[in-house]
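Please decode residue identities from the backbone states below.
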């Protein structure tokens, strides 16, 4: 067994990495790589045996905006071990290596854990932190104005257009948001929300949203200028929409927001903070920056 890094351009090792990711999470990074979105910001730390990747912990460099201040974030993700090599302490070993490697390079290290590993990450100094879900009701007086164009998130031209535009975007929130995270956004456009991407011509912005009965789920608003969110909602709501769920921390002055604690044992946020960083009392990490 040996530790390897920076292997993304090695087709055989990248294929092994994707195979393990597919078997573990049902995801592949191949399209993301082929389209040029796998950059130095995403760094897998992997253990290889016989030219096969058997365990991995990845680090994502994320520039966070917290309470209107820029912070250096490291987001841990793609934590996986081949079934034949579990219970050998490989994840622990990799976590220790990652923590040591980034010791002086972050203000805020974090990850999202599922119910099977909630006791694992506190061993490394991570603390569970609650998130909140933010919603708003749609006033009955709103008459939707349909001025949106649905885009195909699997189309290379569309993806490149969004990628180039998003390089100059504003953070979705200055309470808790990020900037320069377009590579993670593109992973979601490719693999999660490929049929939920829209362009609003008269506002010159993109949204990622979907309808579920009376609920409008808003995952991201990608804009290069300050947004009046009621104008956006007027264009993406339909006649049945009665409420909006924000999958990030809304930071708008033109609407009334409700909030509630997210009570879940999956996608639980764990944080390791340095430099006396104060978190907002209520926040939701933006979904399109979640690794």
């Amino acid at each position: 067994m040996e530790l390897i890094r920076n292997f993304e351009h090695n087709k055989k090792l990248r294929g092994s990495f994707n195979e393990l990711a597919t078997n573990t999470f049902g995801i592949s990074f191949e399209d993301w790589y082929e389209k040029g979105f796998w950059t130095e910001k995403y760094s897998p730390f992997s253990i290889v045996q016989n030219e096969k990747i058997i365990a991995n912990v990845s680090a994502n460099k994320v520039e966070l905006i917290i309470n209107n201040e820029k912070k250096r974030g490291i987001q841990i993700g793609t934590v996986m071990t081949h079934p034949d090599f579990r219970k050998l302490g490989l994840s622990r070993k990799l976590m220790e290596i990652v923590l040591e490697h980034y010791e002086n390079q972050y203000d805020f290290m974090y990850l999202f854990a599922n119910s099977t590993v909630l006791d694992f990450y506190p061993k490394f100094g991570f603390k569970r932190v609650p998130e909140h879900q933010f919603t708003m009701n749609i006033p009955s007086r709103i008459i939707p104005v349909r001025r949106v164009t649905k885009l195909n998130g699997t189309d290379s031209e569309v993806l490149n257009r969004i990628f180039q535009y998003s390089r100059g975007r504003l953070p979705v929130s200055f309470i808790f948001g990020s900037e320069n995270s377009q590579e993670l956004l593109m992973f979601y456009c490719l693999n999660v929300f490929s049929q939920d991407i829209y362009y609003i011509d008269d506002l010159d912005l993109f949204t990622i949203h979907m309808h579920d009965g009376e609920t409008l789920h808003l995952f991201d608003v990608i804009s290069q200028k300050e947004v009046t969110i009621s104008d956006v909602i007027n264009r993406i709501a339909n006649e049945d929409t009665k409420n909006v769920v924000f999958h990030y921390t809304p930071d708008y002055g033109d609407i009334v927001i409700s909030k509630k604690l997210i009570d879940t044992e999956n996608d639980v946020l764990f944080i390791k903070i340095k430099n006396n960083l104060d978190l907002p009392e209520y926040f939701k990490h933006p979904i399109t920056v979640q690794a």
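Observation: The chain has a mean pLDDT of 95.
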